[in-house]
Amino acid sequence: MASITGSAISFSAPALRRSQAKKETVDKVCEIVKKQLALADGTAVTGESKFTELGADSLDTVEIVMGLEEAFEISVDEGSAQEIATVQDAADLIEQLVEAKA
C-alpha cells in the first residue's frame, strides 16, 4: 500500500515481506536444503535461493519440507508447503509455526 505525503511516497513493509526469520533459522534451512538435494560442498545456498534454481523438482520439495518438519519438530500443512519457493520463505514459515506451537 502506498501513501503520498508531500512529495514523498512510502510503502508499507508488511506488503513486501510477512516476516524476516533469524539468521540461525535461515542457516539451518540452508544446511537441510543442501543435504536433501545432495548439493556439492561449495554450492552457495542463501535465503534468496529458489528451490527450482537449485535443481529441486516437486518430489525434492516434498522431501525438503519433510526434513524441515523433522528438524524443527513442526507440521507444515499442504497449502503452506506449496507456497514455499525460497529458503527465506521456508525459514519465515518455520518461525511462524514454532511461535504458534509455543
UniProtKB/TrEMBL annotation:
Keywords: Chloroplast, Fatty acid biosynthesis, Fatty acid metabolism, Lipid biosynthesis, Lipid metabolism, Phosphopantetheine, Phosphoprotein, Plastid, Transit peptide. It is found in: Plastid, Chloroplast. Gene3D superfamilies: ACP-like. The keyword Transit peptide applies. Its main location: plastid. InterPro entries: ACP (IPR003231), ACP-like_sf (IPR036736), ACP_chloroplastic (IPR044813), PKS_PP-bd (IPR020806), PP-bd_ACP (IPR009081), Ppantetheine_attach_site (IPR006162). GO terms for molecular function: acyl carrier activity; phosphopantetheine binding. One of its GO terms (cellular component) is chloroplast. Residues 23-98 form the Carrier domain. Belongs to the acyl carrier protein (ACP) family. This is Acyl carrier protein. It comes from Ananas comosus (Pineapple).
